[in-house]
Structure formats: structure tokens, C-alpha cells
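=== RUN LOG ===
request id: a7f3
mode: sequence -> structure
chains: 1
length: 265
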Amino acid sequence: MSPLRTHAMRASFSPFLLLTAFMPLAAGAALTRVEGVAVSPKEGRPLYRETHYLQDVDGRQARLVLYRCTDGRPFARKWMPPAADAQAPDFEFLDGRDGRRESVQRQGSKRVVSIRSATAAAEQGKALEMPAGGVIDAGFDAAVRAHWSTLLRGDTVALPFLLTSRQRWVPVTLRRVAAIDWQGQPAEKLQMQLDAWFGFAVPAVSLVYAREGRRLLEFEGTGNVRDANGAWPQVRVRFKDPPQAADDNVLAQARAQPLVASCTG
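=== RESULT ===
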């Protein structure tokens, strides 16, 4: 999931379409699967599921994510190839319901950000300079790990985050809120929020990380996939179970599954 979404202007912190087909990963490399369930924070109503497939390739992590309807059918897919800069990976996202596509791709010292709002819409691309310490989408998880000691000391971390739908970098801050017990696990609660006013509102994002292993346990904020009405809903995504081992056949199936056009019917 992306850690921030704008609310009033519906701008998004989201991924990008890099390839028309998924590149194969290294055969036999360690592969794990992580399951997340997204619910409405107020009602507790299930909204969708996330299945993350993580694989180390020569010390760099690749990530494939399937966003699933509550009945398990996939409706969107995200792909991050192995990246030299874990905080700023290239990225592709495709939603099978409306054809929305977002992408970020390295081009020298720049990142090319491309957006297509729907299948029939024209794609819009823009090249942006890469700022020092810049964070792109799920690279936020690597940023948390990199700044873990600073956060536990109580210091605030400032980061430039890519606002994909606005094709611009925005400043955000990350801070520790408190040590908590999360379903019997010692954990740290963090908060991320926009650090400037851009004419649109961005609700703060709440994150819970396990103290042991620094694993993301819970995300609460504006989701990174639209609802059936085309809006960005507020979600709480919980990753209750630890990563499970998976094999190449499972990954190949996840890559090949067609995306459904609707979660109903």
C-alpha cells in the first residue's frame, strides 16, 4: 500500500506501470508471501485483500502485489523490480476495473512518472529530478528501517515523497508516537504526514511496526486503490500473520492471473 493519499483533491501516492509483462525473477531465490486484509476503519467492513510476494535477487528485493476482491479474485496488480535504491524503486500498477495505470521509471538521474486515468485515457508523463533521500511508494518501508534508530530516539525524520498523481515531490515527516502492544506483540506506532500546505488536505497516516524484525503490522490512512465509486477510501490494512514461504509456481500463477473488471457479480 502507499503510505499517503490526498483526500480533498484525491491525489495519490501510488505505483507505476514499467513493463507490459512481468520479468522473471531468479529461479530458486527465496520467496515469501504476506497477506493483508483491508477494512473500513469506522465500520470494520472488509474492503479488499492484498497478497505480497517478496523475493531477494542478488541482495535486492522484488515485490509483486495482487489486490483481491473479498472473494479472492484479483482486480489490480503492482510490480516492483529489484532496485539498487530500496527507498526509490521503479514501479508499475494496473487496475483491471477501469484500466488505471501509474508508473515510475528510472531514467538517468531522473524518474519518469506516467499516469493513465482509465483504459481510453491518454497517458501523461513527466520527468522529475530525483531528490536526495527521495521515497517512492512501498520504498517507504525501507525508509522506516533505515531511520529506525532515529525514530526510536524520538527524532522526527523529514523525507521527500513522490506524489504520483501530481507528478511532484512533496515533503513529509515521520515520527514515533508510542510503544504499544499489538495483538500480543511488542510494537512501535508511527505517524506520517505532509509537512507543507499545497492547497489540498492529506490525512495523517498511522503505522504499526513490530519491534522485532521491524515488520509492518498495520497501516491506517487513505488507501492506494480506488473504491467502486472511483474515490480513495480510508482503510485499515492489517498484516496479522508473519511471512510464509512460497514457491516459484505460486509466483508464476500470481503473475498470470487475469484481473477482473468488477468485484461484484
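=== NOTES ===
The longest strand covers residues 168-182.
Residues 5-25 have pLDDT under 50 and may be disordered.
=== END ===
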